[in-house]
Amino acid sequence: MPEKILVVEDERTLQETLAYNLRRQGYEVELASDGPSALTQARSTQPDLILLDIMLPGLDGFEVCRILRQEMTTPVLMLTARDDEIDRVVGLEVGADDYLTKPFSMRELLARVKALLRRVRILREEFSSSTAPAEAPAKVLVFSNLEIDQTRREIRLNGQPLAVKPKEFELLLYLAEHRGQVLTRDRVLESVWGWEFTGDSRTVDVHIRWLREKIETDPATPSRIVTVRGAGYRFEG
């Protein structure tokens, strides 16, 4: 069954160009031209990936992404007309997985799409294998009231599961597996996001902040994920 991509773009020519090239690659494509219809389409079709323009009528791409992130973990590739750092930062803040600045080459866009969908397939395979019957006991890392359950891909605080995105889980697991070590942002980015990811180290900072808000007693003065000035981060447990 072909993977499904929702293209949210109000510029008709670009929308048709994206749809044509994606369909040539064998993807099933759904279209939306404004923010409200993007939400409706995403909820009804449950796509495997969303290409989301920022400048949209009705609701802009940031707001659409923020709403969708509360409802689903579908990867979002944001399209921005400006090479403006604030656009990229805000996109990551609201939960985008990657971003691409217009004008872009179709080859680059297709490469980003393939990379994101490949990660989705890997996560699904890992989830399927983790939920299958197994003789080996669950592998759980325990740090006082914090548990990282690798079999269930679940983070628990005081015994209660936390709502975390797949990349948040992978990031915390990586930090925990290297407890006490100072890890640079570039090392974390390459190990958790992979060498194909084209974002910058600010992605790590954003996800670290999200994790701190969920697992730290006082996120403003973290004691579990500590910042090492000029170097990176260290997980203390």
Automatic annotation (TrEMBL):
GO cellular component, one term: cytosol
Matches recorded under PROSITE patterns: OMPR_PHOB, RESPONSE_REGULATORY
Statement: the UniProt record of this protein carries the keyword Metal-binding: no
Domain annotation OmpR/PhoB-type: ranges: 138-237
GO biological process: regulation of DNA-templated transcription
Domain Response regulatory: 4-117
4-aspartylphosphate found at: D53
GO terms of molecular function: phosphorelay response regulator activity; transcription cis-regulatory region binding
Entry keyword Heme: no
This protein's UniProt keywords: DNA-binding, Phosphoprotein, Transcription, Transcription regulation, Two-component regulatory system
DNA-binding annotation, residue ranges on this chain: 138-237
Coiled-coil residues: none
InterPro entries registered for this protein in UniProt: CheY-like_superfamily (IPR011006), OmpR/PhoB-type_DNA-bd (IPR001867), Sig_transdc_resp-reg_C-effctor (IPR016032), Sig_transdc_resp-reg_receiver (IPR001789), WalR-like (IPR039420), WH-like_DNA-bd_sf (IPR036388)
Transmembrane segments annotated in the record for this chain: none
SUPFAM superfamilies: C-terminal effector domain of the bipartite response regulators, CheY-like
Pfam families the record matches: Response_reg, Trans_reg_C
PANTHER family (alphabetical): PHOSPHATE REGULON TRANSCRIPTIONAL REGULATORY PROTEIN PHOB, REGULATOR OF RPOS
Protein's recorded name: XRE family transcriptional regulator
Organism encoding this protein: Levilinea saccharolytica
Lineage of the species this protein comes from: Bacteria, Bacillati, Chloroflexota, Anaerolineae, Anaerolineales
